[in-house]
Amino acid sequence: MDTEEITWISINIVTLTISLPGNIFIIVVNIVDFFKNRRLLLSDQLIFGFSMVNILHALQKWNILYKDLFHVVKNEYDKKAIYVFMYLNMCTLWFSTLLILHFCLKIVNINHRFYICLQRRFPKLFPWIIITFILGYFFLSLGSALDTNQECFLNKTFSAMDLPDSPRCYWPFLIFLIICGLCSLFCSVSAMTIIISLLKHLNRIQKNTESSRSPNMESHIRAVRTVTTLLAANILMFSSVFTVTMITPKAIYPFGIVISICHTFSSYFLIKGTRKLDKTLEHFLNHCSSSKNQW
């Protein structure tokens, strides 16, 4: 292992470690809130699912980095790891897309019959959408990962560009990239709709109030930051999986750093953009500060 590879792995470990606390905090707060109130709001469920997938993705990256660092290489393991990588990235994109869509349906009002119907029915359709997608793509990935056909993985690069010209070899990658592209496109349209609507609303608030920093305006600014961060994370993650899967797997280290940074910033802005999480974090920090002063 050369110095450059060790450097990339070390940076990956640092960024991966930094990305964990925010997602763990979100998961713990929502679990405590669920046992306390026996329910979670739809936005909290989506944020919880998004953070859970990020943690699972982080655990897989820890495993990959460990095997790369100590040269633990198994061809059969690597074959399955690429499908786990695709599946977890797909789930991250899907939860991010649904979360932005939920924000769009809550914030943006469009006087159209289909949009109004979607606003009313989305909370009821949400469980079936999640279950259908996650289980459907899980069994699709499982079937591909357990496929004993070795011709699709004769080399150790696992790049789709290196696969033989056989539909059996490249169709899982093709389906994966199509769904990722649709998620990113849908996420981008919803996010841009929210941002444009909120910016117009902010201009109206500034014109109608003397104070440029009213509480209502602050909440809208937090919403814009949250949606913008999720959109940026969505685009960067899609770019990373496209590059790693279709062009060169050697880019997995730099894009692993990018994904960890995306997870860090997305968890931070989700915490700051959610009143429950923000208040819990503030209370926790104040408690730590008071305990430190007592010592």
From TrEMBL:
Subcellular location: Membrane
Pfam families: TAS2R
Lipid bilayer topology: Multi-pass membrane protein
GO cellular component: membrane
Domain of life: Eukaryota
Keywords linked to the UniProt accession: G-protein coupled receptor, Membrane, Receptor, Sensory transduction, Taste, Transducer, Transmembrane, Transmembrane helix
GO molecular function: bitter taste receptor activity; G protein-coupled receptor activity
PANTHER family for the chain: TASTE RECEPTOR TYPE 2 (PTHR11394), TASTE RECEPTOR TYPE 2 MEMBER 40 (PTHR11394:SF47)
Protein name as annotated: Taste receptor type 2
Phylogenetic placement of the source organism: Eukaryota, Metazoa, Chordata, Craniata, Vertebrata
